[in-house]
Every structure is written in structure tokens, then in C-alpha cells.
Amino acid sequence: MIRTLDARRLGLDAVVAALARSPEAVPPEIQAAVDDIVRAVRARGDAAVLEYTARFDGYAAASVAALAIGDGEFAAARRSVAPDVGAALAYAAERIERYHAAAAPKSWRMTDEHGSVLGQEVRPLDRVGVYVPGGRAAYPSTVLMAAVPARVAGVREIVLVTPPGRDGGVEPAVLAAARIAGVTEGWRVGGAQAIAALACGTATIRRVDKIVGPGNVYVALAKARVFGEVGIDMIAGPSEVIVVADAAADPAWVAADLLAQAEHDPMARALLITESPELIRLVGAALESQLAALPRREIAGASLAAHGALIRVASLDDAVELANRFAPEHLELMVAVPAALLPRVRHAGAVFLGAHTPEVVGDYVAGPNHVLPTAGTARFASPLGPEDFVKRSSVIEYSPRGLRAAAPHLAALTRVEGLRGHGRAAELRLTDEGGTTA
Question: Residues 288, 261: one domain?
């Protein structure tokens, strides 16, 4: 069901190579379809959105205005969800808000030795789009993780787009989460056409400044296609977890955490890295037992067989180093003293410390964002947060004394670059010729 690898014998590099994913070439017909959809929405606006919504989602609306999700529908959904679900959404939203408020970037100033003031102004984006997948599953947690940080950052307009059912309905839990999170506008539009409408704008749907949120391959390709016209968060790949565990770890807990990732998708990755051969044996048995009772066992089984592994290493130091080479989305340190290993972690989207911190708390209620870099991109990318919903402007206010001190350096640098006009702009301010004597 799941392979076992011995990094002591193979070496760390060989283990990484053995588990490397072959590049997933996008079928040209899918890329062509996305390009056609984006071009059509750009050229025909509302008409194209209606056409694709009817074709792909089976919902034929009379106008794009009819695709809008009104305040009454949001409010009704909030009232209709089961009390325990409503309480859970409110609980998660409060923790997400508290965490991201602490991380929000702020404007600042400094004054140098010449009295010149330097700094930065941090301003929120005006309008952002949040894409939430629909269809066979509902993801209210994704609404919270995408919209709450935007609200914390000060974004005034937060636009939800999500595919409708064939009757035009949207899962009430998604709309309830949107109301709690601070979404200000909603549209029952999905797929590449939703991304194109947000990026290009139509007569009815105004364009946004940035689009965030996960989706299928059509959504991912559309986000890549419109990047530059609008900002995007990232191109997300399959979910992944690495559990670094010592001999004292509970094998049933480790197996449960591996299966929690594997049940996402047949492409998901779940790895255990340990120095304990006994833990590997016990986790393998626990996986067999727990998988048999899992409702999504076919998906999880396919994931473990194709992309999972139980890996033995010589030491916990090697375990962390191997995890760094994968740069996982989620990294669990299920060891006796996880804080001792944390300084050695260089690459991970989120790190979960200790046996009582399963990755699932990060998915839903801990507070840190579950929109994380995947497929090794944690080497250079970070979780979604309020900093993704702001832009920074540098602020420079020079004093006469500061300009005089800079003058010889400006002269040298503008001369070597052949930009005499640049140098002249500073020189004028230091003479009566410019109208002001420094």
C-alpha cells in the first residue's frame, strides 16, 4: 500500500529523487480552452459569463445580475446553518482574525543623521476577489482563510465567486462563512470564467486588484493567464504533509495524520520520516487498519501508493534535513522536544510542534492560514496573510543638509550611468539657480 525507503542506505538525495513527481504537463486542449474562455470574457463580458455558467455549471440565468448573491441570501444562509456549524465558523473566524491582526504590516518612519525622513506607507488594496471551489464539496474554511486576512488588512471590497449548483444554489455554509468573514459582494460564477470576469471586469462585475483562493486546473491556469493584469496569491498544487517522528510517537496518531492528507486527493503526498524501524512497522499496520474504515479510502489509498512513503533515517537531524529538501506545505515535528528541531527547519509552509498539534487544527481553527505554498515552493513562498492584501509605498523627505551630503555621490553615479539630467535635478536645488539655496 505504501512504500518504505531507507535513507541510511540510499542517501538523502536518492530518496528525494525516488519520490520526485514527474512534471505534470497540462494537456494542450485544457490550456487552449482556458485561453478561449479568458479571451471570450474579455471580448464579450457578461454574455460570455452567462454562456459558460450555463455550459459548465448547468445554471441558465437570464442576466449576470441574476448571478449576484444578495444580502438576503447571505443572511438566510447564516440563519440556516446548524448551530454547531455556525458556532464553529465564528470560533475559527475569531482565531484567524486575532492571529492575522498580530501579523499585519504597518507604516513606519525613521530619521537619518541629516534630518531626512525615510519610511514606508502600507495601504490596503481596494478590491479583492476570493475564489471558493464548489460542486461536490463545500469549503467554508477556505472562505474564512481568504477573506478574514483581507478584512484585517483593511480591504474595503471583498468579492466572493463560487460555482452554483444546477438550480443556482450555493452551499449555505459557504455563504454563512462569507457573512462572518466580511465578504461584501458575491457571485454564483465559477471556473476560468469567474477568474476572467474578476480580472478583466464586465459591464456588471467590476474588476478586482487581486484574486486569491484555490481551484481546479482550469482555475489555476486562468489565474496564471491573468497575472499581471491583477495580482494572484499562488498556483496551488496537491496537498502534502511530512511527519518527522521519534520512537515515542503514537503510531495510530501518525497514521491518522498521514491519512488526513491522503484523503484530499490521489495526488496528495504523505510522508513519515523517522529513525525508528519499529515505528515504521507499527505505522504501516495502523495505516492498513484505519484506511479500511475511511470513507474516502479509495482516494487515500491511491495517494499513499503513488506518493506516500515511510522513510527511515539515521538521526532526527537527517530527518529535518530531508524534510527541508522537500520543502513541504505542512511539517509535523512529532518528537519529544520539537522546539529543539525548529531552528533547523528552513523550508515549510506551516510547522506543527508536538504530538497534540495535528495538522487538521491548522486547516480549520488554529488561526494561521491554511492557504500555503505547495510542491516545494515553500523554498521561496509564504502562507497567505494580511501582507498579501496591502501594497507598500516608500516615503522619502530629504532635508537640505541631507541633499548636500548626497550631492557628490549623486554626481558620481549619474555620471557613470550617463544620465546627466538626473544629476542636474539635484544640483539645481543646491544653487540659487534652482530658486532655493540649500
Answer: yes
Provide the whole-model pTM.
Answer: 0.92
Range of 307's domain? 3-22+237-380
The pLDDT score that the predictor gives to residue 435 is 46
Sheet of 390-397: strand order equals: 108-111, 117-124, 390-397
Residue 44 DSSP SS3: helix
The list of the chain residues with pLDDT below 50 reads 432-438
Name residue, grid cell 476570493.
Answer: 130
Model confidence over 114-124: pLDDT tens digits? 999 999 999 99
Amino acid letter at 52? Y
Residues in contact with 373: Cβ distance below 8 Å, sequence separation at least 6, in sequence order: 234, 327, 329, 349, 380, 381, 382, 383
CA 411, CA 297: separation in Å to the nearest integer? 70
- Output the nine-digit C-alpha cell for 18: 525516488
Write down the pLDDT at residue 136. Answer: 66
What's the confidence (pLDDT) of residue 438?
39
Task: Give dist(CA 344, CA 342) in Å, integer.
Answer: 5
Q: Is residue 218 part of a domain?
A: yes
Catalytic, out of 100, 264, 307, 330: 330
Q: Please count the structural domains in the chain.
A: 3
Q: What is the pLDDT of residue 434?
A: 47
Residues 112 and 149 in one domain: yes
CATH number for the domain that contains residue 111? 3.40.50.1980
Q: Which amino acid is at 75?
A: A
Q: Please answer whether residues 53 and 187 qualify as being in contact, where contact means their C-beta atoms are separated by less than 8 angstroms.
A: no
* Candidates 329, 332, 347, 359; catalytic one: 329
Whether 329 is a known active-site residue: answer: yes
Quick count: other Cβ atoms within 10 Å of Cβ 320? 23
Contact 240, 268 (CB under 8 A): yes
Q: Do residue 63 and residue 175 come from a single domain?
A: yes
Cβ atoms of residues 158 and 187 within 8 Å? no
Decide if 239 contacts 261 (C-beta within 8 A): yes
Please give the DSSP secondary-structure letter assigned to residue 23.
P
Q: Is residue 70 part of a domain?
A: yes
* Cβ atoms < 10 Å from Cβ of 146: 32
- Cell numbers at residue 99, please? 492571529
Same domain, 10 and 77: no
Burial class (CB in 10 A: 0-12, 13-18, 19+), 168: middle
- Residue 175 falls within a domain, yes or no? yes
The DSSP code for 126 is S
